[in-house]
Amino acid sequence: MGLQGWRNVLALKTSKNNNRAAWQRAFPVPLSHSQITRLYSRFHSLDKGENGALSREDFQRIPELAINPLGDRIINAFFPEGEDQANFRGFMRTLAHFRPVEDNEKNKDLTSGEPLNSRTNKLLFAFRLYDLDRDDKISRDELLQVLRMMVGVNISDEQLGSIADRTIQEADTNGDMCISFSEFIKVLEKVDVEQKMSIRFLH
Amino acid sequence: MESYLFPFDSLICMLLGISFTVWFTLLLHLYKPYRIIAKEPVSLEQEIQDMRRGGAEPEFDMSDIFYFCRRGVESIVDDEVTKRFTAEELESWNLLTRSNYNFHHISTRLTALWGVGVLIRYGFLLPLRVTLAFTGVGLLVVLTSIVGLFPNGRMKNYLSDKVHLMCYRICVRALTAIITYHDSENKPKNGGICVANHTSPIDVIILASDGCYAMVGQVHGGLMGVIQRAMVKACPHIWFERSEVKDRHLVAKRLSDHVADKSKLPILIFPEGTCINNTSVMMFKKGSFEIGCTVYPVAIKYDPRFGDAFWNSSKFGMVNYLLHMMSSWAIVCSVWYLPPMSRMEGEDAVQFANRVKAAIARKGGLADLLWDGGLKRGKVKEVFKEEQQKLYSKVLVGSTSFQSTNQD
């Protein structure tokens, strides 16, 4: 790790409680010190070019991600619109969606804006995986493309088409042949999103 | 020469042992958890069935994406493969900067201890070891050339064995390798192949100092080439030209010819094909398992607290690596000789290779992975993604045919 990298890690580790506000602003995710430093060393080990940011190739180098049918869509979620590099802050922000929802947070009054790992934001993350052109609607074409990614060559075009049609028919309430975010939320209201879209961070 | 050095070197080992006890009682132990996240191994089908909303099973549910999404993000945070190609992370620091990942400055006392450690390692241990190493290699070249002058026969084989063993043992001292051999009754015999997990080039020295093997490898230039040419004069090793390595039939033929000749030594092969960091065993290449002779598996496990033996060839060159090795505290490892295995009826080479791999992993306490060690440098094959897609399609299509038979 470069000298600057180690300085960052040291700053994290030695910051006291009264600096918490300062580093929480820098890392707007309520993870513990040790969790953040572990994520930083993971970030650093993925960053082969050692330039403080990850490129798409850096993600592709993870074999388990490369064989994931939706690997490319997931990688895309780490890169903001039009950018090719993901810095550590962005990396953490995206991962923050997968923090489990703590019990005391579930009933919290949402005055300061929703936390990244709320149910709505987790659903938004999934919605964006379908919404290829980021126009806040899932069209039949987009649904077909994502389905094709998931099944490969094993299902015919006609069968896939009818699956897509049926799905849109079930979800679409305002008749525009597209699924909007609110329709998406309605369709999945019975699914335990908090559990399915959470990763258990240790310590 | 060796007997002269022997008492001196065991004194070093004793001193090391004492100093270690002292260091570790003074050290603060930091427990760092290895894993960042907890992963539950659930199959694709089960997860997706669980996820489907209650009631009649629809063909496709928009929530199916959650499975892939979570698995993908889990692998971004922590995956099984990429961490095998860098040195193992330690629970508590062993006072070597090269093993310093997450350990931060704790106290001046610790830094002072570390400083003293550096002085001892570089000022005292390193020069001693380098001298021994040069002696060992020099003797190997000179003595094997001399033995090569003898006519072929039992005398030559006997001398060659003795010479090889002696020189390798000097090299072992040069690294201060403290090796424990288990189950020596299973040691490889002539006409067989010895397979072991691969962590570093030192594996060869460790195994060859306890038994005589025929080495397999590519012809090198420079110093390595000199050593190779000298060794092959004394007893038949198998060195391939660079061009011959690609030709799998030629390789297989030379290996089988060697094995068929019972007077020749057992061949030593590392089927992983590349160095892995000794926390896992990766896919064994099936080439050596197709030859159809007895396979003698050997498991090698290094203790990472005293020195990290893994050679990260993309990061360090050979000289750098040897320098690291010779300035560590010691190389402590265990070698287990497993009972010989042969290919069973109806088993193909790949299944046989996996069976041997599982046995080695179990004995050495290593994770048994199906991933290819070649992923260190290359990309994963598309066919694995297609397998995932196929599995998911089965889940979809399966429920379709269920529905259509219901409606009929």
From TrEMBL, chain B:
Q: Which molecular function GO terms apply here?
A: glycerol-3-phosphate O-acyltransferase activity
Any stretches that span the bilayer, and where are they?
6-31, 106-124, 130-150, 321-338
- Main localization (coarse): membrane
Pfam families, A to Z: Acyltransferase
Please, which domain of life does this record's source organism belong to?
Eukaryota
Give me the Gene Ontology terms describing cellular component: endoplasmic reticulum; membrane
InterPro entries from the UniProt entry:
LPCAT1-like, Plipid/glycerol_acylTrfase
Keywords from the named record: Acyltransferase, Lipid biosynthesis, Lipid metabolism, Membrane, Phospholipid biosynthesis, Phospholipid metabolism, Transferase, Transmembrane, Transmembrane helix
Q: Where in the cell is it found?
A: Membrane
Q: In which pathway does it act?
A: Phospholipid metabolism; Lipid metabolism
Look up the record and give one Gene Ontology term from the biological process aspect: phospholipid biosynthetic process
Task: Pinpoint the Phospholipid/glycerol acyltransferase domain residues.
Answer: 192-303
Give the family this protein belongs to, as stated in its UniProt record: Belongs to the 1-acyl-sn-glycerol-3-phosphate acyltransferase family.
* Record-given protein name: Glycerol-3-phosphate acyltransferase 4-like
Organism in which the protein naturally occurs: Sinocyclocheilus rhinocerous
